[in-house]
Hints:
The chain crosses the membrane at residues 295-312, 346-375, 395-422, 434-459, 465-485, 527-547, 680-702, 711-734. By secondary structure, the chain is α/β, with parallel strands linked by helices. It has 3 domains: 3-165, Rossmann fold; 178-274, Helix Hairpins (Orthogonal Bundle); 281-543 and 678-740, no CATH class. It is built from 31 helices and 9 strands. It has helices at residues 16-24, 68-80, 94-107, 118-123, 130-137, 152-165, 178-194, 203-211, 215-224, 226-247, 251-267, 283-291, 296-337, 342-359, 362-378, 380-394, 402-410, 416-421, 429-438, 448-458, 463-487, 509-541, 549-575, 578-609, 611-623, 630-639, 645-653, 667-673, 679-691, 696-706, 709-736, and strands at 3-10, 28-32, 39-47, 50-56, 84-90, 111-116, 126-128, 141-143, 272-274. Helix 20 (448-458) crosses helix 28.
Amino acid sequence: MNKFLMALAGNPNAGKTTLFNHLTGARQHVGNYPGITVDYKEGSLTLDNQHVIITDLPGTYSLTAYSEEEVVARDYLINQRPKVVINIIDASNLERNLYLTCQFLELGIPIVIALNMIDVAKDRGIKIKAEKLTELLGVPVIPIIARNGQGTDELMTAAMEVARENKPWIPTHISYGEDLDETILDLMAIIDEQNFLTESYPSRYTAIKYLEHDDLILSKGQDESKTTAQTIESQVTSVSDHTLKTTEVFPESIIADHRYGFIKSILRQGIVTHTFDQDRLHITDRIDKVLTNRFFGPVAMLLILFGLYQFTFTWSEIPVGWMENVFVFLGDTVRNNMAEGPLRSMLISGVIDGVGGVLGFVPLIMFMFLGISILEDSGYLARVAFMMDRIFRIFGLHGSSVMPFIISGGIAGGCAVPGVMATRTMRSPKERMATLLTVPFMNCGAKVPVLALLIGAFFSDHKASYMMFFTLLAWLVALISAKILRSTVLKGAPTPFVMELPPYRFPTAKGLAIHTWERTWQYIKKAGTVILAFSVVLWAMMTYPGLPEDEAANFEAQRQAIMSDIDAEKITQSSEDATAGEELSTASQELQDQLTTIDVIESEAALRHSLAGQIGTSLEPISQMAGFEWRTNIALMGGFAAKEVIVSTLGTAYSMGEIEADASQPLGDRLLESPHWNRVIAVSAMLFIMFYAPCFVTVICIAKEAGTWKWAYFSMAFNTVFAFILSVAVYQIGMFLGLG
């Protein structure tokens, strides 16, 4: 069976991913482009006996290499040469979306246009003649509604027809005025004569990119031939000086103007008609009158956020209890059916109590991601970014900082790593650095299980309220930190911010299911791989080297003495009358309890003598200022690797030597009954976990994005010191007021 490569490309919010999900369903996977950190999705399907591989390219407005996403999209098209590109266009914003189409045409790529959201366009009184647009552009234009699949069969039929034609790439010529057209012809002559970059790009396209001062093309040109590159750059400089003197603009502005002129000339040929007055308020505009209102908008945002947490905790409570019971059952089963020894200890304390503590929160995480997917797919998250821009400017940040904050967990459940990566699209280096250093303060998906554990154990009556409070606190701390950075080491004025607000849409069940499962599966995979590995390593650190021989012998002697007393009681009991026998039976039970106590004390002593126990104990004189005992210190050390490990390590530590709590209980109950924990300590711990050093993957990402380890080390040190000071203050004040 032949294999065809196809690609989906288009502007952000044009419905590209919705179409991708509809076409591929579960037959997709997420990967990473070689050498960079931008993710891509790839799926497969079979059409007319053809195996088709579809790649969902990053959303982009242009093919000029201003951002990583634009570089990825263009490089994929050049290097992979897909048989056809399906260009998804928002029918209600036709002029803006066609700008990217123009660049596809100039590159000569075989394309099919998917005219998406024609229902939204119709609601806005916009009617588009797809047949006429096909005729004028010279490529198939198929009206579709991606969210319900309308028109997708016709779209894929047209795409397969274009793919089978296998035509060479033929660039479309757009006139850029007399001066630039002459220069383009001159540059093309040089490019063709020297075979300069012709293996990758059409000569006309290369000439245009030089006029647009595309840094990536200029760099490739220098690598190809410095002599030819300098000749071309000299001509471009000459024409740039000329246009600047005569029109006061650079060639790239002229090119953009003429592209839009090309688009307007097409649209004015009866392509678009309006069935009613364009000033009429559309449904999206009506909703935005309320949800983005200067005063009511933030109130609505807080209510929606609170509703998200209420939904998450209410609906997940029962399945979370089921999951906890499953792991308690597994622990009891292993405990009752395996001989005591290192293997049993590892399975119970390292794997079941460790990983089980993290996997137990899968239902909560799933409901959280479902709620976030609804907000994202409906278009509301873009409104959050729009409203937050006004606040961000107060703290010296750019409006585009909002999305990295949200991605990092601004509404809980994100991840700091993609949040850090998302800063690369920001133009201002200082704003980018301030954003990059503060996004780890957000409550990412790794922190949510820890917060949920402690809130559920100590504040079970108001879980949603406390989660919302800690989310808002994360925002406040991050913004204050950004203000400090922007007022000191990263001084500078904020740059202008413009963003697109997509129309509101009803999320599709299929899209929600895919998005929710993708994120939940990433969480499960992390628990089954990274967290499992760290849990076993930390179990080993909490087990070895074990008790010194003399202490182990002392415990064994105590145990043997009690066993002798028990045997003696049994002999006495058999020779006494019934009443005395009952009294002796009680005495025998007390001896059994003493034996259990000896076992637990020995387990705690062994934990203290372990490598992790020694480290945790050595830190205790300092950590006690914040209310943390040595076992908590062990868990916090594990959090440097991954914040989810805190839950698994607490599960392991408090199943190895806690006298007052039953080790078969859920971890939350064990902490609640522990004398080393109370409400004040729980709040102190949550604050420290929220704000101390990012996980090691995030630290590496900060170093890579910042271009130096200096800022990564700064992030670790600054965050940890700040978090500790805050935790100490809360613990000391709380205990002084008697709130524990």
